[in-house]
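sorry for the late reply, my laptop died twice this morning and i had to redo everyting from scratch. anyway the thing you sent over, i finally got around to it. pasting the sequence first so we're on the same page, its 103 residues, then the predicted structure underneath. double check i copied it right bc i was rushing
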Amino acid sequence: MTKLKFNFTHYDLKQQRAGVTIEITLSAVANVRLMTDNNFQLYKEAMKHQFVGGVARKSPIRLVIPQSSHWHVVVDMEGHHGHSESSIRIVETAAPPRFQSAS
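ok and here's the structure:
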């Protein structure tokens, strides 16, 4: 099994619902990948995987969970020099308005 040849920072977001926004703060240009649990396993094995995100040239960046599932965020420096410190927070989306019945 092939393993990655570079370090990465991993955030396990657990189960998240579609529409939740994730905000990632970086100290330098880095790759930011939001991926499902299955894709994260493929990523760790250096296999083809799918993700939302890419090269983050500004900070903070926001990514939206596209579907309800178990999600991970990875920050790595593949193709970049140096190191980037990172932090992450979940930005709750506004709840849809609740309709009240007229009495």
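The chain has a mean pLDDT of 87.
thats about all i looked at so far, will dig more tmrw
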